[in-house]
């Protein structure tokens, strides 16, 4: 089904064929636009060079043009339906997937969709003021691209709530606009989405580590037996890939510039030269990685086991796994602390699914570190960046009761606190990073703390006027 842009709400789900649903979504639309105006990007622009989805197939799904942001065509796009698709895991493995929500899973599915849906507008709120200090027009454009797509992801989840969960679903869709990131009275559901994104280093770390958690969560929902959810997530993952790119290459460029300044001035202390010292970058990695690990929940979870057995949520790349996809006979290892030592335990595989997903995520994160260390090597710098231990600085799960150093040593609370400033960004670090954040809006110019990108967007040069101001 092609995307119909003549409709008020662009879609490829034949919204016009379901008047009731169409009316319900059309009455949610002004609330969304109002939210975008008050909580979306704070910098006024005339138009931005954005990509818009035009088809969901393998080729040509994206179209690039200068668009006034409030006229962006947010809509409902699902990946194409595979009529033969069958449930790939759990106790109903092999049966046809569901086009409607089975009554017994209604509450659980709604909860999963609400939690995913809540993160989408949250990140737009967290990034609201970043445009005021963009290091280049290219970066400003990328920020806005991420923002409009997170807005669209909200649409994706709201469509499911409206189309399949009745009155309850519509109420949840309203609530998604009422909670706000960092709001004391009605915060967003997950901790990492109430943290600030006050500077661009945080933004790149967020898009690298926290958006990547999103990628893995979407990957599990893409496996869902509830086919509309699966198809929604499949298309969201395509958009998500760009967010990840912004994070990966953003950190690349900060690291490259820091290496350059270190060589030029023959010192690690590049702060006085307008750079971000490597130890500060390391602390930002430590922080964003550890809060993102918390998003995977407890290592052992009966909820996760039940979701899997019921077919609601699979594993990362479920169909590529070489086992029975039911897991009732399998076991897994989880790391934990016992008698003052880090050790591991064998537990039923079904209970350890959060740990399984987190393990996939961690090895993906490692690829970023490898990349950034290659940038350092090529930049002629001997220092290296690392991922801290999985138990470092955790608030959720088995490690949250313990004090573990980035290297993985178990220490007392006092020793941990005494070293906190060496491991996590201090007020002075944040103040320094913030002091570097000055907008550079001239085409082809770039701030001094970051290197320019190696390519522009959609084959345009870096000097292209990606954003026009009023
Ligand atoms: Fe998203
Ligand atoms: Fe994202």
Describe this structure in words.
- This protein has 470 residues and is mainly α.
- The protein has one domain (15-468): Ribonucleotide Reductase, subunit A, CATH 1.10.620.20.
- The chain has 11 helices and 7 strands.
- The strands form 3 sheets. Strands 2-1-7 form a 3-stranded antiparallel beta sheet. Strands 3-4 form a two-stranded antiparallel ribbon. It has a two-stranded antiparallel ribbon with strand order 5-6.
- Strand 5 and strand 6 (410-411) form a beta hairpin.
- Helix 2 (106-126) packs antiparallel against helix 3 (137-164).
- The longest helix has 39 residues, at 227-265.
- The chain is globular, with a radius of gyration of 23 Å.
- The model has no long low-confidence stretch (mean pLDDT 96).
- The structure holds fe (ii) ion (2 copies).
- One fe (ii) ion is lined by residues 150, 211, 214, 240, 243.
């Amino acid at each position: 089904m092609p995307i119909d842009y003549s409709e008020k709400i662009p879609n490829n789900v034949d919204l016009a064929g379901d008047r009731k649903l169409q009316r319900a979504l059309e009455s949610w639309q002004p609330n969304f636009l109002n939210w975008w105006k008050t909580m979306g990007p704070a910098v006024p622009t005339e138009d931005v060079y954005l990509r818009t989805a035009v088809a969901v197939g393998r080729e040509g799904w994206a179209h690039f043009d200068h668009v006034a942001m409030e006229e962006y065509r947010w809509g409902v796009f699902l990946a194409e339906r595979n009529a033969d698709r069958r449930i790939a895991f759990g106790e109903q493995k092999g049966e046809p997937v569901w086009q409607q929500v089975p009554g017994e899973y209604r509450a659980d599915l709604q909860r999963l969709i609400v939690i995913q849906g809540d993160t989408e507008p949250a990140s737009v709120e967290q990034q609201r003021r970043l445009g005021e200090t963009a290091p280049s027009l290219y970066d400003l454009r990328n920020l806005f691209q991420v923002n409009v797509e997170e807005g669209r992801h909200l649409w994706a989840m709201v469509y499911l709530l409206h189309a399949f969960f009745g009155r309850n679903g519509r109420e949840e869709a309203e609530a998604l606009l009422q909670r706000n990131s960092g709001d004391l009275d009605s915060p967003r559901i997950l901790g990492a989405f109430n943290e600030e994104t006050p500077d661009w280093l945080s933004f790149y770390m967020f898009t690298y580590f926290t958006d990547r958690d999103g990628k893995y969560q979407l990957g599990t929902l893409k496996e869902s037996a509830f086919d509309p959810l699966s198809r929604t997530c499949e298309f969201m993952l395509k958009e998500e890939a760009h967010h990840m790119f912004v994070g990966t290459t953003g950190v690349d460029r900060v690291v490259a510039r820091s290496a350059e300044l270190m060589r030029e001035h023959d010192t690690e202390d590049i702060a006085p030269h307008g750079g971000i010292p490597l130890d500060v970058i390391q602390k930002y990695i430590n922080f964003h990685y550890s809060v993102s690990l918390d998003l995977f929940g407890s290592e052992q979870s009966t909820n996760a086991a039940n979701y899997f057995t019921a077919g609601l949520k699979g594993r990362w790349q479920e169909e590529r796994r070489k086992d029975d996809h039911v897991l009732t006979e399998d076991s897994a290892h989880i790391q934990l602390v016992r008698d003052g030592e880090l050790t591991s335990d064998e537990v039923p595989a079904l209970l350890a699914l959060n740990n399984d997903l987190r393990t996939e995520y961690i090895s993906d994160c490692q690829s970023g570190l490898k990349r950034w260390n290659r940038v350092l090597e090529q930049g002629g710098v001997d220092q290296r960046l690392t991922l801290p231990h999985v138990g470092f600085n955790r608030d959720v799960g088995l490690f949250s009761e313990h004090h573990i150093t980035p290297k993985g040593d178990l220490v007392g609370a006092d020793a941990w606190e005494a070293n906190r400033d060496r491991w996590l960004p201090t007020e002075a670090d944040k103040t320094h990073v913030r002091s570097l954040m000055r907008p550079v809006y001239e085409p082809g110019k770039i701030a001094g703390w970051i290197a320019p990108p190696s390519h522009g967007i959609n084959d345009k040069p870096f000097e292209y006027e990606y954003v026009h101001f009023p």
